Amino acid sequence: MDNRPIGIFDSGVGGLTVFKEIRDLLPSENLVYFGDTARVPYGGKSVQVIQRFSSEIANFLEMQNVKMIVVACNTASALALHKLKTETSLPVIGVIDPGVRAAIKAAGNGVIGVIGTRATINSGAYQERVTRLRNGVRVVARACPLLVPIVEENLMNSEIARLTLEMYLGDFKKMGISSLILACTHYPLLKTMISDFFADRVTLVDSACETAREVKEMLVARRISIEDVRHGHEQFFVTDSPEGFAAIAEEFLGRPLAGECIQHSWQTE
Amino acid sequence: MDNRPIGIFDSGVGGLTVFKEIRDLLPSENLVYFGDTARVPYGGKSVQVIQRFSSEIANFLEMQNVKMIVVACNTASALALHKLKTETSLPVIGVIDPGVRAAIKAAGNGVIGVIGTRATINSGAYQERVTRLRNGVRVVARACPLLVPIVEENLMNSEIARLTLEMYLGDFKKMGISSLILACTHYPLLKTMISDFFADRVTLVDSACETAREVKEMLVARRISIEDVRHGHEQFFVTDSPEGFAAIAEEFLGRPLAGECIQHSWQTE
Fold first, then answer.
1. Which of A57, A117, A160, A267 would best serve as a mutation to test chain B binding (most B beta carbons within 10 A)?
2. Measured on CA atoms in the order B162, B168, B171, B173, is the torsion positive or negative?
3. Which residue is catalytic, options B73, B144, B209, B261?
4. What value does the mean pLDDT take over residues B169-195?
5. Is B209 a catalytic residue?
6. Which A residues, 77 through 96, put their C-beta within 8 Å of a C-beta on chain B?
7. Inter-chain residue contact B49 with A241, CB threshold 8 Å
8. Pairing relation of β-strands B234-238 and B203-206?
């Protein structure tokens, strides 16, 4: 048993989908969430910058004495996970492997689709993992930069969203893909629309639940889970306004934040 | 005569529209451009963060020994201009006043519309300046967060862009506005579409040219302009990859960068 918290980080608020699944599956664990809201989004930025930002956050979480680090951001998982693992002795889990495993299981011998930010798709990380875990399976990937702002503008179910899906996913439909990895924390909010778009013929893989399951397995395997009937505590760090974060967080979690939210500033020289 | 360069900054690449107008109008001036590409965009962030980032950049430009600072970013102009002026003895020019003056001139007694990022519109800076410069004139404002990603996805003239304009500007059309301030550096790239949307009945104000004119006036008034037949030199600083910036800059400028592009990292403690 190890009472230290699990550290979870994202470029902004989207990682709260992963936080929520971990909380639901592991109610007695203590959780620390870090959202880099002053520098969000990461999805259009370079490998070097995404790696530097990710290392800074992982360092910060280590100083908060976490027992494990969950990279809830798809972009950071795709570009920085490997580097983070070489920089810390703590276990580090990203969202890619759990998502890929679920997609392979669902797809059978069919084609797997992946959608995400420009940085995630250009990294080739998902495509590479699929091929490594199931040789011979066909994988198609597409960056969809307009989907995050559409979610943030609350345009789910609008004609604008429908045309945008048609533009990004029209080819996947023609190809007849079997499963689709939603490789960006915002996309699950478009699940119903995407499902309708494919006439329910495609299994949508939301990495958040798969990742939470993997976190639980690792805690159990390493015997560092908390066995307690009490609820774990929660703490949040953000780099932009805590008030702005708390408001959006409530929409993501379906409840108000249950712990303090502290602003952390990256001090520049 | 003062040979020091003019410092121009933006959250990213968009401020190059202002850079270009200044270059065209003042060919012998030396120019230093700063694009905070690792932390872009500013438009959805808090006042405190936008002010802190702007002060850091202004400090950096002072250390580059500039003779004046041009805030090419609408969001930073709306939220940080006043603070920057108290922090430096250098002249500081933003994009708001030049745009507002042009809009008032064009509107006559008609209604003035303003579109920009969430932070720009919520600040009320444009609305307040219009009212201060021409008491009694009616001004309507609207945040349009989807327009920047539409430009970045090169969706000008698409049905998606048309529906988005309808959503954001439908009310302005019904009201019969006379002039519209494009209060974000990306929007001029949608000029033709917006003009068509209003059936050419609205004067579109692009702050970039107006700002360049004001920069020239100030240099002349303070006798710090460069009178020379030689072309001024150019230097660029960005916080994300210089290669990525150079590629997009070429589209904005219609020519390759004519000076070195250096990466500056905000070193964190």
1. A160
2. negative
3. B73
4. 96
5. no
6. none
7. yes
8. unpaired
> In terms of DSSP H, where are the helices of chain B?
16-25, 47-63, 74-87, 96-107, 118-123, 125-133, 147-152, 159-175, 191-197, 207-221, 242-253
Average pLDDT over residues B182-201: 95
For residue A261, indicate whether it is catalytic.
Answer: no
Query: In a mutagenesis test of the A interface, which of B79, B240, B263, B264 is the best target, namely the one with the most A β-carbons within 10 Å?
Result: B240
Task: Output the pTM of the full model.
Answer: 0.94
Residues of A in contact with B167 (CB under 8 A): 160
Cβ separation B146–A153 shorter than 8 A: yes
pLDDT at A151: 93
Report the distance separating Cα A77 and Cα A116, nearest Å: 12
* B163 touching A (Cβ < 8 Å): yes
The pLDDT tens digits for B74-86 are 999 999 999 999 9
Q: How confident is the model at residue A268 (pLDDT cuts 50, 70, 90)?
A: low
Q: What residues of B are in contact with residue A39 (Cβ under 8 Å)?
A: 38-39
Cα–Cα distance, B8 to B92 (Å, whole number): 10
CB B12, CB B40: distance < 8 Å? yes
* Chain B residue numbers touching A240 (CB-CB < 8 A): 45-46, 48-49
Hey, what are A228's tokens?
A: 């307690």
B135: which DSSP letter?
T
**Taking CA B207 as the corner, what is the angle to CA B203 and CA B211, rounded to the nearest 5 degrees?**
135
pLDDT digits (tens, 9 = 90+) for B165-181: 999 999 999 999 999 99
Contact between B45 and A38 (Cβ < 8 Å) = yes
What value of ipTM does the predicted structure carry?
0.92
- Are the Cβ atoms of A145 and B159 closer than 8 angstroms? no
Q: For residue A47, which phi and psi values (nearest 5 degrees)?
A: -55, -45
Largest Cα span, chain A: 54
Q: Which of A13, A121, A153, A239 to mutate to test binding with chain B, by most B CBs within 10 Å of its CB?
A: A153
Question: What pLDDT is attached to residue B27?
Answer: 97
Average pLDDT for A201-224: 95
A-B Cβ pairs (cutoff 8 Å, strict): 74
List CB contacts (< 8 A) between A152 and chain B: 44, 145
B231 to chain A nearest CA, in Å? 33
B31 vs B69: CA distance, rounded Å: 10
> Could you tell me the pLDDT band of residue B268, with boundaries at 50, 70 and 90?
low
